[in-house]
Amino acid sequence: MWLFLATEALMFGGLFCLYAVFHAKFPAAFEWGRAQLDIGWGLINTVILLLSSFTMAMALYSAQTGRRSAVSLFLTLTVMCGVMFLGVKTIEYQHKFHEGLLWAGAFSADSAETGTANETKPIEPAAALSPALARGKRVFEMSCAVCHGSQGQGVTGSGLPLAGSAFLDDRSDAELVDFIKTGRSAGDPQNRTGMAMPPSGGNPSLSDRDLGLIAGYLRSLEPPAEPTYVLPNPSEFRVPRSVIAVATEGPTGVADWVLAGLNQPPKPTPVRESKPTTPLPPPAGAEQFFSIYFTMTGLHALHLVVGIGVMLWLLGRSWRRPFHRGDCTPLEIGGLYWHLVDVIWILLFPLLYLVH
What we know:
By secondary structure, this protein is an all-alpha fold. It has two domains: 2-108 and 288-354, Cytochrome c oxidase, subunit III, four-helix bundle (Four Helix Bundle (Hemerythrin (Met), subunit A)); 131-234, Cytochrome Bc1 Complex, Chain D, domain 2. It has helices at residues 2-25, 27-35, 39-64, 68-99, 131-143, 145-148, 166-169, 173-182, 208-220, 256-259, 286-320, 329-354. Helix 1 (2-25) runs antiparallel to helix 11, helix 3 (39-64) runs antiparallel to helix 4 and helix 4 (68-99) packs antiparallel against helix 11 (286-320). Residues 110-127, 236-246 and 273-279 have low confidence and may be disordered.
């Protein structure tokens, strides 16, 4: 049994090494993926398995001390804890399937419709594009299309046309990536629109790989047959009038807080910050995180199913022929396997749910 447990440790050890390699390669994706997991459910499952280890140990102790009825009770509680763990994990899996947070090619969290008011036609499917261009198209549509148009045709008053432009032809991919990452201020002498371009298109979660995919996708675009972009006249830009009222137009009299006998005005009521209506796209490598998540938690759940089967066999054995002080080997071997399953989850929980 100890030799078998050693091979199990080697197998999960390889998966932990896989986790470490991909976490180092895609740190932003793993941070994003961790935020999609519910720490509450993971903590509940951790408590459940710790409790099950206690009940399993108590079952063995009861057999060694001759408390036969207590053996069946603690084995039953152990089985119930295992079933509860699988129930919670099923709830988590259902949420992931609903949100498209799945493994490898099944990952679809970044393919939801995120149309904007500036788009004149729906986004075309990217099935005919290569995987790299399809990814670049999705990132461009979620970060840049609101200013430059879904096909890079430009949006009057927001962003210049990019499809087939000399701006792309005169720059290398590295220069384009650096330009998108840095952005451009409104006062830049080469800025012909008078509007600022935020760094990374306003999406700080984009990696250099994402920006490179955007550059590759822009080079694949064809210029529109009939350009519709009109360069605005800088003289038409109007600076909005200050919202501060003129002193002579202000209120007169004594402030209410002075009449109320207060020494200072009351603190203003905090205003809730508005959340963006369009979620940011997941960073590159997010599908790798969920591939590892489902592989490790799924394999652990499979081991737990086997452990529940072992506990049920021990429970039936205790009913047919009760365990006693000199006949505890099956309980001890079953307990070793169950504790291994618990220890593996104690390692999985912080790695997947807590590590930043």
